[in-house]
Amino acid sequence: MANRLGEATSPYLRQHADNPVHWWEWTPEALAEAAHRDVPILLSIGYAACHWCHVMAHESFEDDEVAAVMNAGFVCIKVDREERPDLDAVYMNATVALTGQGGWPMTCFLTPDGRPFFCGTYYPKPQFLQLLSAVEDTWQGRRDEVEQASDHITGELRRMAGGLPDGGVEVSAELCEHAVAMVLREEDTARGGFGGAPKFPPSALLEGLLRNYERTGSDEVLAAVARTGSAMARGGIYDQLAGGFARYSVDNDWVVPHFEKMLYDNALLLRAYAHWARRTGDPLAVRVAGQTADFLLRDLSAGDMFISSLDADADGVEGSTYVWTPDRLRDVLGDDDGRWAAEVFEVTAGGTFEHGSSVLQLLSDPGDPERLRRVSAALLTARAERIQPGRDDKVIAAWNGLAITALGEASVALDRPDLLEAAIRCARALLDVHLVNGRLRRASLGGRVGDSVAILEDHATLATGLLTLHQLTGAAEWVTAATALLDTALAHFTDPDRPGRWFDTADDAEQLMVRPADPIDGATPSGASTIAEALLTAAHLVDVDRASTYAAAAAETLLAHTPVLARAARSAGHWLAVAETAVRGPLQIAVACEGSDSALLAQARRLAPGGAVVVGGEVDSSPLLLRRDRVDGADAAYVCRGTVCDLPVTDVGDLAAALNTSV
């Protein structure tokens, strides 16, 4: 036998191609091999940017002694959780059910037909060898116990797959206010964020709160957004030299990050900071949105598309690219600037990270911004000479969809046409590579798609991004591509027995022991909440028959998932955002104009709240512009809420008044 990972489309799997372990990818052939040999499956799930995945690989999977035991007693399967989120979801639920917690690397032992009977996460080499021996002994000597355990776990997973109870309440302003109140009660008002360490960026929740603020004008809500947005942007979780956010902070103060940088985090945070900047003009929000966009374009680019992540480690050392000491600052900058930089960036002799090093923070803006720019540029140049983190170069459709939406919306907030151009290039490349025989694929590497089929979030986030491009360009190609994705989702991902519910995998995809269907917003918005957003938007951009189908599906989806908002609002940030949009109608703004340089259309896009549908063009060029024309030779904006429309306005001030905002 040999290791079979050399041709994988996942860089994470390729990192293990030279292991002495006889790794398989997850395939029917791998499961058949376990059945033929009558041995259990050892399933290891991780991802390229995961620090502890690298640690376990170095300690165990690269070790000949451990590999010999694994090869002799097991069929060993390696899975990239980002490429196969369906497998990750199923076996993470099993791990949490058995141990009370989850994480990566995930280590699961399965029967040859895929039923788990023992699960865990990271194991140091001595404990891992003991575990391998114990599992093998149990398999060979007490098979009945294995069968009982696997049957029990499988039964529990299927019971848990029922998800939310039936019987939601209608989406309403009162429900949104209830959810917001629940969230604000959990805010860490002293340090920013919601809940305690480890603190993950609450990107979708910030978007939901911003949409609530735009509807209600609540100063309390805006203050919560500002506290969390400022704390993250000034802490070590944010790269103060190059822009971009790390995955999470290990402490309550956002000081020390877990250093990997993920495309999805930065796309979602770009969207939130861009909307904060657009709505308030806050200088910090403007700066961070711009720098985060630049980080995407510079450091996460893969041609016209975007890669998945940057590692936490550089040459096996976590965070080594990013940390500093006072001496290192002086070596690069000289004594005067070195001492000044240490004070500005909170670099101390004792350090905030390992071995006396510090992660850069910028707790306040210094009085000399030009000096800050010069010093930062010098430090960034010196940092570029260090060993750099590894890149996971695979392209994930869903995460690129998030980037398309964020870049498009940020182009309006920051008045940067280059961001819209980047979003358009990404969308075209993604559709060229990832659409195969009319169906979307989830992952590619170097322009080659893998076997992993797209899940619900891929269809939903890409459709949302394409609808954003349609609104910003007026080009019909984007709404055509988006509706094809939505029609596929309606045909293959809905739950026929429970209206408004969605599965995360298609009905014609590989059938696992449980069909995943998780409605909770996590590090990324759930597929269900994102498809609701896409359907809600698309319903106003398509013909009447299709519009009614989309509107009904969006309403059913929201109704079925209001229990999430009512009971677990912190885990429903994107549901809150979509609900806020639905409560407003959603708001529709159609600008009758000639050409794409209409000043009124530009202002409509800037003034429109998050989630609003905005189109511009000549009469009858869009469903929202049917029989709506310019007024007395002037561009005219038609503002509608649901099916109720105001009289057209031709003045920016009147448009702002109609939107209950300020110019």
UniProtKB/TrEMBL annotation:
Residues 3-157 form the Spermatogenesis-associated protein 20-like TRX domain. InterPro entries: 6-hairpin_glycosidase_sf (IPR008928), 6hp_glycosidase-like_sf (IPR012341), Ssp411 (IPR024705), Ssp411-like_TRX (IPR004879), Thioredoxin-like_sf (IPR036249). Gene3D superfamilies: 1.50.10.10, Glutaredoxin. This is Spermatogenesis-associated protein 20-like TRX domain-containing protein. It comes from the Bacteria. GO terms for biological process: carbohydrate metabolic process. Coiled coil: none annotated.
